[in-house]
Amino acid sequence: MTPETDSSVASLAPFMNGALVFDEGIPGFPEARQFVLSEFDHGGDFRVFQNLDDPDLAMVVAVPWLFFPDYSPELTDMEQRGLEIEAPEDATVFCSVTFDEQGGYMNLLGPFIVNSRTLRGRQIVLTDQDYPVRAVLPFG
Amino acid sequence: MLVLTRKVGEAIVIGNDVIVTILEVRGGQIRIGIDAPRSLPVHRAEIYQQVTAENQAAVASAGEGTELIKSGGLTLRRPEG
């Protein structure tokens, strides 16, 4: 099952008001549990994904299909069931962005998958799919 | 790190429900079978480590990134259509 490839930024809108719960933390931050997604004042494509208990644990994220329209991450049956995802529209997907002097890079190997009903999520390390952990974002 | 020596066909039990079995040794490679609850994710270490490292890098560069975004210093070329 491939999550719905809705490139509309509005697909992150349901999360603006609630905390997202990651029961198992995320790789590198196994104790982190509750996160929020915040917009920038000017709006735009990016969000800040921030831990409620440790505000320094924050990263810039965005919906991957805005930049990589062919991206099709596949979740295993267990991964879908663990997040109670029964249909593509149950899943909302965003990916982290890392910055350096040269530009920005999106982690397509480890997308954040959140169930839009339950607000529970996991960062899934994709298995058997060779997506880059640093996909270059095209700055023009 | 706990270090055990096993022969092909022998296994290791971790906790109550994870079993790691040495299936085959051929050339420089070892085939390993893993019996674990299906809810427990299992990954090649270097792949998992890549995501861990990238999360840390994303957090470390978030300040720089948010400044770039707020200052409008980022112009992203979006795919057409």
Descriptive notes:
Chain A is mainly beta and 140 residues long. Chain A has a single domain, classed as Roll (BH3618-like). Chain A contains one helix and nine strands, in the order E-E-E-E-H-E-E-E-E-E. Chain A has one helix at 77-82, and strands at 20-21, 34-39, 47-51, 58-62, 91-100, 103-106, 112-115, 121-123, 135-136. In chain A, strand 7 and strand 8 form a beta hairpin. The longest helix of chain A is centred in the middle third of the chain and has 6 residues, at 77-82. Chain A is globular and about 40 Å long. The relative contact order of chain A is 0.22. Mean pLDDT of chain A is 87; it is low at 2-10. Chain B is of the alpha+beta class and 81 residues long. Chain B has two domains: 1-39, no CATH class; 43-74. Helices cover 31% and strands 25% of the residues of chain B. Chain B has helices spanning 45-60, 62-70; strands at residues 11-14, 18-26, 29-35. In chain B, strands 1-2-3 form a three-stranded antiparallel β-sheet, with no helix packed on it. Chain B is elongated and about 60 Å long. The mean pLDDT of chain B is 90. At the A-B interface, strand 4, helix 1 and strand 5 of A face helix 1 and helix 2 of B.
Notable characteristics:
heterodimer, A: 140 residues, mainly beta, BH3618-like, 4% helix, B: 81 residues, alpha+beta, 2 domains, 3-stranded antiparallel sheet, elongated
Major sheet of chain B, described briefly?
Answer: 3 strands, antiparallel
Relative strand content of chain A: 25-35%
Q: Give the tally of β-strands of chain A.
A: 9
Count of helical segments of chain B?
A: 2
Low-confidence stretches of chain B: none
Shape verdict of chain A: globular
Q: What are the low-pLDDT stretches of chain A, counting only 5+ consecutive residues below 50?
A: 2-10
Helix-strand category of chain B:
alpha+beta
Biggest sheet statistics of chain A: 9 strands, antiparallel
The CATH superfamily of chain A turns out to be BH3618-like
Please give the CATH architecture of chain A: Roll
Please estimate the helix content of chain A: under 10%
